[in-house]
């Protein structure tokens, strides 16, 4: 992919070139990143291979070998040039110069280049030790950046990416401690291999202390003391976070509709306990056939404890599934089995009434339409002017602004009509009841599940009372009285 002429004119600095590559030509930048990652891995692997075949007792007895040494020098020249280019691309150059990655580059690339120049004069320069194991921090940085690319992030759930970041950090810290312990103990006492150094680090961190492998020299023992202090203070918070991730993994399960045999709908958004209660109770009270449909609540953040308790009730336990995920990611839509879903409802952040939340909701809708264009979408937008973006494919759009304006105008024209309409909006398929028949309360309840308008026979003690008094009495029981059917079938 080549840069277009109009984009070249707007590039005034190397930093701008990097931004254009990342934002508009991410395929090129991700390819460069993968190549750099492979070179970093090759550099560390060559160091490990040389260390295992060379029992170095001092920093001048690390025999690289001619071919390996030349290869390491070439790689470090490339690393140094890349570091210079990134330095000129950074806005805060002082901060980047003092960063840990820059220090690692100064401790590895610069000495290796100096030894490479010296080897042109005397071959003894090929036997000097360089801490190339520190390049694992550049490997860790490459992997973390790679996980944030859209080409990778869309196929991975957030919890998987967080676990990968945790493992990369753990790997980098352990490799640093293992390599440093090996060189300190080998140069101040007897030689220790990388395997024994790794074994010693794990045993020391686990506070087991078998005693079969121990540091022999005073500097090595001081290093082990520092390692234990740093490991306990640094690794414990990481493992605590890993335990939290393990608990959250319960909500990262995959819903299986068995190829559509278990119908379900997806509700995406950030909900409170009251909102979830209203949504699912009205959903299952609307129509009898809805009782066989599962609800998948997909939220970008962890569900509140009140919501977890609510869906754990016997009535909802096997009907409502909690998931953490983003509908903009194919991996999360696949976990929710969106291909076999009957519909998806996008609510967004229900706690915010700002219009800019519609933009994020529209982006989610575009991503879902790209994932499965046949999946019916129902959106709740705040502003009516945003409906045009999704009207071509959305199955339905509810506009909060339009509803509020209509209710406000109707409330001014006909006072008292707004509460009546709000209750009528909860009606799905009203059916007239035959009030002349006598039914027990179970039959009345079964029939009332089909709609939210109840037609009940009042007792003789209520006859003769005014409509206002009856309405007040029912209102105390959270029931809205909207009419009275006389014995002649007329509605008052």
From TrEMBL:
Record's catalysed reaction(s): K(+)(in) = K(+)(out)
Sorted UniProt keywords: Ion channel, Ion transport, Membrane, Potassium, Potassium channel, Potassium transport, Transmembrane, Transmembrane helix, Transport
Organism for this UniProt entry: Trypanosoma theileri
Span of domain Potassium channel: 176-245
Name the record gives this protein: Calcium/potassium channel (CAKC)
Domain Calcium-activated potassium channel BK alpha subunit residue range list: 397-484
Lineage: Eukaryota, Discoba, Euglenozoa, Kinetoplastea, Metakinetoplastina
Domain RCK N-terminal span(s) in chain numbering: 262-377
Superkingdom assignment: Eukaryota
């Amino acid at each position: 992919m080549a840069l277009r002429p109009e984009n070249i004119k707007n590039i005034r600095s190397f930093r701008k070139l990097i931004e254009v590559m990342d934002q508009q030509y991410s395929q090129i930048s991700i390819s460069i990143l993968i190549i750099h990652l492979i070179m970093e891995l090759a550099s560390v692997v060559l160091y490990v291979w040389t260390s295992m075949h060379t029992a170095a007792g001092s920093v001048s007895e690390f025999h690289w070998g001619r071919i390996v040494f030349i290869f390491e020098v070439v790689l470090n020249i490339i690393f140094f040039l890349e570091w210079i280019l990134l330095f000129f691309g950074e806005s805060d150059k002082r901060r980047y110069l003092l960063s840990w990655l820059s220090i690692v580059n100064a401790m590895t690339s610069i000495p290796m280049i100096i030894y490479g120049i010296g080897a042109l004069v005397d071959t003894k320069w090929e036997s000097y030790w360089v801490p190339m194991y520190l390049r694992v921090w550049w490997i860790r940085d490459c992997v973390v950046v790679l996980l944030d690319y859209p080409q990778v992030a869309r196929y991975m759930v957030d919890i998987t990416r967080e676990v990968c970041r945790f493992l990369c950090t753990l790997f980098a810290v352990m490799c640093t401690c293992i390599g440093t312990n090996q060189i300190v103990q080998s140069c101040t006492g007897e030689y220790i291999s990388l395997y024994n150094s790794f074994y010693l680090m794990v045993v020391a961190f686990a506070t087991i202390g078998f005693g079969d492998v121990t540091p022999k020299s005073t500097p090595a023992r001081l290093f082990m003391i520092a390692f234990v202090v740093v490991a306990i203070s640094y690794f414990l918070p990481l493992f605590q976070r890993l335990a939290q991730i393990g608990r959250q993994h319960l909500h990262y399960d995959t819903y299986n509709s068995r190829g559509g045999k278990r119908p379900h709908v997806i509700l995406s958004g950030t909900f409170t306990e009251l909102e979830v209660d209203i949504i699912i109770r009205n959903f299952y009270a609307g129509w009898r056939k809805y009782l066989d449909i599962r609800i998948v609540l997909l939220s970008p953040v962890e569900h509140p404890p009140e919501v977890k308790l609510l869906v754990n009730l016997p009535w909802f336990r096997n009907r409502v599934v909690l998931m953490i995920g983003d509908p903009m990611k194919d991996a999360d839509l696949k976990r929710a089995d969106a291909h076999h879903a009957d519909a998806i409802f996008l609510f967004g952040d229900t706690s915010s009434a700002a219009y800019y939340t519609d933009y994020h909701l529209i982006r989610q809708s575009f991503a879902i339409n790209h994932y499965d264009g046949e999946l019916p979408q129902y959106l709740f937008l705040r502003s009516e002017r945003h409906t045009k973006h999704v009207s071509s494919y959305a199955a339905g759009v509810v506009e909060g602004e339009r509803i509020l304006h209509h209710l406000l105008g109707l409330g001014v024209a006909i006072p008292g009509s707004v509460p009546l309409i709000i209750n009528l909006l909860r009606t799905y398929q009203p059916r007239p009841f035959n009030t002349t028949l006598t039914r027990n309360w179970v039959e009345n309840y079964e029939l009332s599940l089909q709609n939210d308008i109840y037609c009940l026979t009042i007792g003789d003690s209520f006859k003769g009372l005014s409509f206002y008094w009856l309405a007040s009495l029912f209102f105390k029981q959270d029931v809205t009285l909207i009419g009275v059917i006389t014995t002649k079938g007329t509605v008052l």
